[in-house]
Every structure is written in C-alpha cells, then in structure tokens.
Give the backbone structure.
Amino acid sequence: MSVEARERRQPWILLSPALTAITLLLFIPLLFIVVYSFWLRTAVGGVEVTFSTQNWQQALTDPFYRYILFATLRIAFVTTIFCAVLGYPAAYFIARARGNRTILLLLLMLPFWISYIIRTMSWINILGVSGALNTVMLSLGIVDEPVQMLYNEATVILGLVHFLLPFMVLNVYVSVEGIDRSLEDAACSLGATRFQAFREVTLPLSLPGLAAGGLLCFVLAAGTYITPLILGGPRDAMFANLVFEAIITQLNWPMGSALSLLLLLVLGAVVAVYNHFMGMSQLSRGLA
C-alpha cells in the first residue's frame, strides 16, 4: 500500500471507533423506530408486522396531536425567551468579572450535580399548597388560604427555565468571552457611552452565542416530558408525554414510534434552519 493511500485511510481508521458507536447506538435503533412506525398494534396489544401508513396519517391529521405539537413549540419558544432574557445578563457579568471567574462558573455548574428530577420536584415544596411560599404568605397575612400555583403551564415553563438556564448562560458566556474588550474601549474613545458600546459592538458580536443557546434550550424544552409530567396538569402535556403514554402505558409501539419521529423531524427542521443561517460551530464551542 502506498504512503498516499495509507494517509487517506488513516483518518477513517482513527474515526472508526466513534463511527461504530454512533452506528450501533444511534442509527440502527433509529432504523428500528422507523420500521416500527409502519407496523400496526393488534387488538390484544401485540404488533402486526405489515406496512401501513395508518399511524402517520393519524399523527398528521388528528387535531389532538396537532394541538399538542403547537402547544409544545409554544412552550419551548416562551422558555427560550425567558432563558435569553435571564441568561444574557448573567453570562455578561461572568465574562466581564474582574475576579476569579472560575468560582462563578463553578456556581453555575452546581445545579448539574443534582438530579434533574429532584430539581424539578423541589418546586412542589416551594409552590405547593403546603409549600414554602404559601407558608410565608399565610404567616404574613398576605393571603387567607393557600394559593394553587402548581399544575399549570406557567409552572411547566418555570421548571423548564430552571433546568435550561445554565445552558443559555454557558453559550452566551463563551461568545462574550471571545470578544476583545478593546473594541468596547475603542467605541468609548470615539464618543460612545458604555451602553452604546455594548449595543453597537458587544451585543451584535455575541448574537451567535445567544442563538446557539436559544437553539439548545428550544430543542431540549420541546423534547422533555419529565417537567410537564411533574409540574403540569392534565391539559399541560407536551408532545414527548404523548410518546411516553403511547409506548409505556398503551404499549402501542408503532404509534409511539410515529409520534417520536414526527417530533424528531420538526426539531430537525429547526436545527437545519439554524445551521443554514448560523452554522453549528458556535453551538459546539458552547458545549465544549
């Protein structure tokens, strides 16, 4: 074998373990889900091996599934907006802090050391009828009886913001940290105020990080089912809850497969639009 041919094969040899793992753990299971989506559930709970588009027709034409899908996208969008509004100032403060930013980043990462389920369930102890907030309001005489604050769309969004905010902060932090501070000083030396320098220089240059954090928050919010399951009511189910219900409760694997692929296609379209306008490089830096 020639040296040139060996050099061409060497990258593929080095990538072969990763490509093998991705094929076995991602593409082959995804292929099984695609095949399952065209099968049918029998009356006794089994699976009929056939080729039918019935599951896809129901998923695409049933108004119930369409309503839940739009509600899921709306909740994910609102969650992303809140994460951006709350996360950008925190990321900017950390990036421009004069002290030891490692401590601030460590404090930001602390929530990841606690189980996501435990963090979500902690809101029950805070907002519940006998939770901390109601106890304080009753003791101060603000209310005469406990206020029902749980099991609605607002608490679902609150739980999602609590879960996803660090992802937004990290992406924006990476973007702001990469901006040369002398650019702001140069703008100020030309007569701009600090706010004008931020608005005209820092904010535009940090938009790729903000967009990357927004994409990550949107996709994770749209694909979650734990938060609406714990903090939401019967009318606050998200699309992933329908997948969970179809597969785990109803044992309808074909319908659950079609629903999961439908959600995957919608979120994949969102990622494709982001990649077209922004590229995936900023997102990879934020996750590094």
About this structure: The two ends are 37 Å apart (CA to CA). The chain is about 75% helix and 0% strand. Residues 63-105+148-287 form a domain with the MetI-like fold fold (CATH 1.10.3720.10). The first helix runs from residue 3 to 36.
